[in-house]
Structure formats: C-alpha cells, structure tokens
C-alpha cells in the first residue's frame, strides 16, 4: 500500500468515530421509505461539518439529497450512494444505517486529501426497500455527468461482484358487477372468480419459467361480504427475472393471463405499476477488481466468487448508466439472516461497528483509485459501453 493510500486508511479510522455515531443514531431511530427525515438530517449535518455543499430535496424527493465536495484540480465525478430507510416492524434489518454512514464516511475520508482531483458526491437515495428511490433519481437525470458510483451492503460473505434480479411490481384490478350471491347471482359478474382464475393461470405459467424467474402474488381485495357477488378484486404481484429482456416477456404473459381470466367471466381488468421497476445489477468488473485489491490490502483474504443475489436492488438502474459496484461485506460471522430483527441488532453491535470501518476504508481506497487512475476509469467505461443496453 502506497503512502497516500495509507493516509486514507488511517484517515478513515478518524472519520469512523463520527460515522459510527451517525449509524448508531439512525439504527436506533428507524424510519420507513420517504419518511427518513432524521436520517437525512443526521447524514447531511455530518457532511456539512466537513465542508460538503448540500442540495436537499433532490429530484423532487424530500428525503433525497446530493452532497458535493470539489477537489483541487479537474478530474472525474465520483458518487457514493447512501441508503437509510428501514423495514416496517423490523428496523434496519438490511443494514441501511451502515450503508449510509459508510458512503458518507468514505466521501469525508477522501475530502481530506489536498491532492484530491475531480468532485465527490454523496447521493442520498430514499426508499430502497419499498419503491426504489434510485429509480426516480435516475429518471430525473441525477446521474448525468457522474463517472462512477459506489456503495456497499452488509451480508453473509465478502463478494465484490454481484448480480440481482430485475423486478416489476404489478397491481391488477378486476371489475365485475355486484348482485345478491343467492337470490340474484345470475345478474352478477364475479370479479373474485376472475381473480382466482388469474392465479391459477399464473401458477400454470410458472411451470415453464426459467429457473431464476419468479411470479409471486397476493390478493389485497376480494369482496366485501359473502352474500354479495364481488364487483372488485385486486391482486399485487412481484415478477422477477435475471434479465430485463426476459422479465418483459414474462410480464406480457402475466398480463395476458389476467385478460383471459377476465374475459372468461365477462369482467374487466386493468393493471398498473404500483412500485418502480428495478433493472438487474450489472457490477462493473474493473471497479470490482479494484475494490477486491483494496480489500486484500486491508487484510481481507476470504473473498467469494461472483454471486447471484436472489433479491432486487435499485442500484441496478444506476449500473446501466454509469460504472457501478454494490459489493457485500461480511457482517460479524455471516450467520445473521437479512430482514430480521437479529440482523438489525447486529448492525448496532460491535461487529457492525467494525464492519463500518472496513467499508469506509475499502470504499475510500477504491474511490481514490477511480479519481487518480485514468486507465481504471477508462476500462470501467469501456466495459459499460460494451454491454448491450437494457431493454
């Protein structure tokens, strides 16, 4: 490790104390998506105290922000992504209190160098757990002019390259005609019957799906009383696939199932997206390689091969626009299951505190590689541009 990287490694140890305090406070006061006012205030005040300029709200979202720090000579624009929303009833069972604090800590660490080129951003992105704040940030052009985007995620292993599932969230509304369920059933059109038929059709569709594609649905409305033919029935579905182009085909098949089920009983059906659509994560291998090298220089040897995550992340939408990574780092012994209270508690424990330091150091060192090594960024952009566009 060269002298300047040693400076950042040691500087991170100083910043870590403030970052951990922010992570602890946010973890102890969890907020749901688009309600993360305390988390945003905590992180932006910390950034402001270290000379960052704060734009809040951003992209029309009250709990989104962009923090900027300009270097001392021209160079790339590097964005660290901060998350800070919690899970209902669980708290920070996905470790977003650590994610936000790590990105802020890495950005502050880099800002301490008088040799800093370019510009550092921290992009605060709300509601990752529910509707994907990054999707809105992407659509509003926040990442135009950004050269690379970094974040980390706590997990069960150290994995620098991950892929994720593309996701569509569809709501189907079946409309029929109400009537007395016994005395005048002939005059009714049973929307619930159409909805149940729809579920049966999608279940048959599952038999021919690729092994890494999924259809999961629930009924959110099914009628008001057993003695009234339901005139309205509603279902919500998550559709997932490893690639956006495959998911688009599945989505059209599911919509056709809904239309056929409605027609079978002379009902009507409409559909809409009730959450933002996520694209698959495309980890940039050039940047992930730099992150892995820095992990090894920090003493981490147990690094897993590329992993296929079974969930969906809105960082995927960022990764189709700019070179991006979303590595996982091991929380404690790696035995805590995400989206549980145990995981949330681990993120507030001594292992969570130690993980935060590692994440700040690895992100900062990789950020420095991007800012100071034009060849690395050139390779990363060439890799991005060589991939077919998401359709």
UniProtKB/TrEMBL annotation:
Source organism, top-level taxon = Bacteria
Task: From the UniProt record, give one GO term of the biological process aspect.
Answer: folic acid catabolic process
Provide any one GO MF term from the record.
Answer: para-aminobenzoyl-glutamate hydrolase activity
Q: Name one GO cellular component term.
A: cytoplasm
Peptidase M20 dimerisation domain span = 172-262
Matching entries from NCBIfam families are given as:
amidohydrolases
Q: What is this protein called?
A: Peptidase M20 domain-containing protein 2
Q: What is the lineage of its organism?
A: Bacteria, Bacillati, Bacillota, Clostridia, Eubacteriales
């Amino acid at each position: 490790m060269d002298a300047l990287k040693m400076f950042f490694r040691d500087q991170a140890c100083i910043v870590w104390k403030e970052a951990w305090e922010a992570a602890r406070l946010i973890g102890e006061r969890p907020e749901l998506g688009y309600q993360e006012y305390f988390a945003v205030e905590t992180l932006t005040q910390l950034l402001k105290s270290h000379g960052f300029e704060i734009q809040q709200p951003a992209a029309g979202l009250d709990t989104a922000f962009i923090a900027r720090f300009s270097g001392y000579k021209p160079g790339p624009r590097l964005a660290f992504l901060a998350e800070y929303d919690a899970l209902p009833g669980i708290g920070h069972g996905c470790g977003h209190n650590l994610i936000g604090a790590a990105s802020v800590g890495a950005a502050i660490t880099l800002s301490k160098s008088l040799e800093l080129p370019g510009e550092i951003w921290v992009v605060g992105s709300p509601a990752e757990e529910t509707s994907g704040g990054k999707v809105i940030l992407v659509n509003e052009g926040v990442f135009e002019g950004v050269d690379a985007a970094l974040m980390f995620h706590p997990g069960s292993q150290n994995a620098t390259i991950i892929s994720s599932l593309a996701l569509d969230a569809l709501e189907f509304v079946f409309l029929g005609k109400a009537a007395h369920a016994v005395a005048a059933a002939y005059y009714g059109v049973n929307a619930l019957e159409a909805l149940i038929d729809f579920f049966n059709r999608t279940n048959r569709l599952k038999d021919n799906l690729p092994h890494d594609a999924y259809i999961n649905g629930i009924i959110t409305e099914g009628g008001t009383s057993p003695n009234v033919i339901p005139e309205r029935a509603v279902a919500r579905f998550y559709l997932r696939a490893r690639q956006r182009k495959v998911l688009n085909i599945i989505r059209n098949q599911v919509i056709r199932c809904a239309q056929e089920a409605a027609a079978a009983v002379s009902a009507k059906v409409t559909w809409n997206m009730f959450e933002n659509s996520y694209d698959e994560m495309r980890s940039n291998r050039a940047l992930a390689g730099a992150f892995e090298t820095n992990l090894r220089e920090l003493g981490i040897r147990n690094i897993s091969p590329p992993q296929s995550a079974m969930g969906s992340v809105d960082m995927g939408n960022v990764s189709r626009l700019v070179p991006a990574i979303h590595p996982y780092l091991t929380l404690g012994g790696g035995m805590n299951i995400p989206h549980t209270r145990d995981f949330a508690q681990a993120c507030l424990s001594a292992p969570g505190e130690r993980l935060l330091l590692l994440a700040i150091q690895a992100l900062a060192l990789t950020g420095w590689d991007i800012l100071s090594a034009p060849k690395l960024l050139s390779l990363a952009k060439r890799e991005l541009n060589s991939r077919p566009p998401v359709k």
